[in-house]
Each structure stands twice: as C-alpha cells, then as structure tokens.
Design brief:
N-(1-d-carboxylethyl)-l-norvaline Dehydrogenase, domain 2, 2 domains, alpha/beta, 54% helix, 13 helices, Rossmann fold, 3-stranded mixed beta sheet
C-alpha cells in the first residue's frame, strides 16, 4: 500500500485495528500515550514512534481512536494538525459528541486538511476479526478515499452523510442497543423466575418477534451463544463504561434536539448505576447480574 497511516490510540479497539492494517500491507506508524498499549501493539507487529506529531508528519492519513471529544480537540489544537503534511486526511474513529466531531472536522479543513468521522460498532471481537461496521460522516470524495482502509478493518462501511453524520448514526444505534440489552436481560431474568431454561427461551426469542442482536449475538446468559461474553464471566466485549459513555452522548443529543425519549434516558441512568456499582470493566450484557440482584432484594 502506498499510503502511510498514523494510527493514534492503540487501546483495546485501536490496537487490533492497527494490526489488521499492518497485515494488509499498509505502512502504519502507531502511537499511544499509554506505554502498555504501545508495547502490546509493537509486539503484534505495529511499528511505533515516539509521539503523535512524529507519526502525523510522515503520514497521508491520520487515524485517531481516542476516549473522548476533548482528547481529540486538544490533540488537533495542540499541534497535530500543524505537524501533518498539507492535505492529509484526518479520520477519527472515536465515539464523540456530534458537535465535537463537526468542530474537529472544521479545524482540520481550516488547517488545509480533509476530514472524516467513522465511529465503529462491533466491539473488541470485531476489531480483532476485522468485522467492524463503520458509520461514516464525510464528503463523498473523502468516503471513497478511506473506503479501502475501512474494508480492511471492517465488514461494512456506511456513508451516513456529511461530517458528524457518522457520530449521529453511532449514538442512535447504541441508544437502541442499550435499551434492547436491558430488555433482553429483564426477559431472561423473568424467564428464570417462571422456570424457563435459558436455551428454551433463547430458541423462542431468536426465531420470534423479540429477535434482536442483544439476544442472538451478545446473549446475556451463558450457553445459547457460545461466543457471547456471558460465557467468560462478562469480560468485554463492549464494556459497561463505554455503553454508559455512549448513552450520555445520546441523552445530550436528545436534549439538544428537543426529543422526548424516555427509554433512552432511563437506559442511561441504569448503565450509570451499573458502572458506579462495579460494572465499568464488565461487558455491558453484565447488566443482567444487576437486574438479578435487585430482583432478589
């Protein structure tokens, strides 16, 4: 591959994504502020450098996978845009506020670069397997430019509209996911109380009108779906802290848009409580343990 990609943010999601780019033949320069993340990526064959600006200065595509919009905007304003080659394409795969994504894109364009937001869905398993879904906000020509890159890291990339549209799609999707996981967990706990075996209830839901991803792919009980986090004591996967973060972004967008969405807001409160009570590092499907515990009180 002719492009050099500066991959900034080599954590649980970014690390495997960078590895897949290297395996596909891309020239990758990785960096993370966390030494352990740098070491883990290097051990998997990702070339690493000493700073984000060093990576950006040598790349035509600057891909960021950061914890928050503040981290992204601070990096852009802190020298990252200035260090990059003129006309570089800044591709942000973080999950951040829509307004922050649009602000970051404008900063990049004002500095003489191109910009796209492409948050992901699929969790760590999807990052490792290269089966992520990317929701892209960008001009049509920028989407075409990054499509080959996204094809390496994922199984599908959807062009959702202009800058910020990828983030908008992501928070809508994850609001629905949070609500359905709570509902699926409540259904399984109710089934337990009514004497139903997990497999029997799964066999019904997975082929009936209650069918949803929260049951058929990330089933909150062990057994029916061998690859679900429930079979490994709710090790993520997609951590409860990340679901809590995404639901906060959704609630912020709901309020900004003047939308009444009681289930989305309630789901945010439930996951905030889950995180506060020790669920931050557990898979978000571990919310079922919280429901069981409170049902027994």
């Amino acid at each position: 591959m002719s492009e050099t990609v500066a991959f900034l943010g080599l954590g649980h999601m970014g690390g495997p994504m960078a590895v897949n780019l290297v395996k596909a033949g891309y020239q990758v320069l990785g960096f993370d502020v966390v030494p352990a993340a740098v070491e883990a990526a290097a051990a998997q064959g990702v070339p690493v450098v000493g700073s984000a600006t060093e990576a950006a200065a040598q790349a035509s595509i600057v891909l960021t996978m950061f914890p928050s919009g503040k981290h992204l905007l601070d990096a852009y304003r802190g020298g990252l845009l200035a260090a990059a080659q003129p006309g570089s394409l800044f591709l942000d795969c973080s999950t951040i506020n829509v307004d922050e994504a649009r602000e970051a894109a404008q900063l990049a364009v004002d500095a003489g670069h191109r910009a796209a937001d492409a948050p992901v869905s699929g969790g760590v398993v999807g990052a490792e397997a290269g089966t992520l879904t990317f929701m892209v906000g960008a001009l049509a020509e920028e989407f075409e430019a990054i499509a080959p890159l996204l094809e390496v890291m994922g199984k599908r990339a959807v062009h959702c509209g202009g800058n910020g549209a990828g983030q908008a799609a992501k928070i809508c999707n994850n609001m629905l996911l949070g609500v359905t996981m709570i509902a699926a967990s409540e259904a399984f706990v109710l089934g337990e109380k009514l004497g139903l075996e997990h497999q029997a209830l799964y066999d019904v839901i997975s082929t009936a009108s209650g069918q949803c991803w929260a049951v058929t792919t990330n089933c909150p009980v062990p057994g029916p779906v061998p690859g679900s986090p429930a079979n490994r004591d709710y090790q993520p996967g997609f951590a409860g802290a990340l679901m809590s973060k995404d639901l906060k972004l959704a609630v912020s967008a709901l309020q900004s848009a003047g939308i009444t969405a009681e289930l989305g807001s309630l789901a945010s409160q439930i996951y905030d409580r889950f995180v506060d009570e020790g669920g931050a590092g557990r898979d978000f499907s571990g919310i079922i343990t919280d429901i069981r515990q409170k049902s027994a009180e």
